[in-house]
Specification:
This protein is an alpha+beta fold. The protein has 2 domains: about 110 residues, Sandwich (Jelly Rolls); about 60 residues, no CATH class. It is built from 3 helices and 15 strands. The strands form 4 sheets. Strands 1-3-8-5-6 form a 5-stranded mixed β-sheet, with no helix packed on it. It has a 4-stranded antiparallel β-sheet with strand order 2-9-4-7. A 3-stranded antiparallel β-sheet has the order 10-11-15, with no helix packed on it. It is elongated, with a radius of gyration of 34 Å.
Length: about 240
């Protein structure tokens, strides 16, 4: 009987006395990041970091593979009741939150997944100089990849064989539209003869000498739709 009363008393106390739930927080180091943090099921993660007076930025980044979207909040209190600033967006583009401290103090950060596919991310807090270095590092990876793709596309386009025009019509082309190796052979007008399709491959208009604007070597533009019309060189 006494045991029953004791249990009942504990239940009553638990209902009357307010209970504060304390969430474990990871500690961040200024101008450094925690990598490969997992977040699943639209969950959230809490961080704390001891910062000096000045301007700071929280940066959360995830790989484009995951397509994760975040909301990032910065607060002066562990219960996130005093929000300094917040932002949300796609993690592969980087979600950043800027804030200013007028004194040295402990700051609390909450990262919440709000969309996309669950996965992994990195989180860090940076001052202005180190944020620039981190951003520069990201672009030093992205820019070479873009340059390689661009140059590779140009090389492939140049190496791609031109498909001969079957049938079509013969017309005269200006010197700059004829490959230089053919112009060097002779000045005869027969080497300025090219063959194009009878109709524009883009809009279907009938092609002739008068409705083509030559734009480069064996390449013209339809005057009606500005579509590309390719030609093949041939001797007559």
């Amino acid at each position: 009987m006494r045991g029953y009363r004791l249990i009942l008393g504990l239940i009553v106390v638990a209902l009357i006395v307010p209970t504060t739930l304390v969430t474990a927080q990871n500690t961040l180091t200024p101008n450094s990041s925690i990598e490969n943090v997992s977040l699943f099921g639209n969950g959230n993660a809490f961080y704390s970091v001891d910062l000096e007076t000045g301007d700071w930025t929280v940066l959360v980044i995830s790989d484009a593979f995951w397509g994760m979207q975040f909301r990032v909040e910065v607060s002066l209190d562990s219960d996130m009741s005093t929000i300094l600033n917040e932002a949300q967006g796609a993690g592969n583009q980087g979600v950043s939150v800027n804030f200013n401290l007028d004194s040295d103090r402990l700051v609390h950060i909450r990262v919440t997944e709000i969309g996309g596919q669950s996965g992994f991310y990195s989180v860090g807090v940076y001052d202005g100089l180190n944020l620039f270095i981190v951003s520069l590092g990201i672009w030093l990876i992205v820019i070479p990849v873009l340059v390689i793709l661009f140059v590779g596309g140009i090389i492939c386009a140049k190496k791609a064989p031109r498909t001969p025009v079957v049938g079509g019509i013969q017309i005269m082309a200006p010197d700059y539209a004829i490959p230089e190796r053919y112009l060097r052979e002779t000045e005869s007008t027969q080497f300025r003869t090219v063959r194009v399709s009878e109709k524009c491959p883009t809009c279907g208009a009938s092609l002739s000498q008068d409705n083509l604007d030559w734009t480069g070597s064996l390449e013209a533009e339809c005057v009606y739709c500005k579509g590309v019309v390719r030609a093949t060189f041939e001797k007559i």
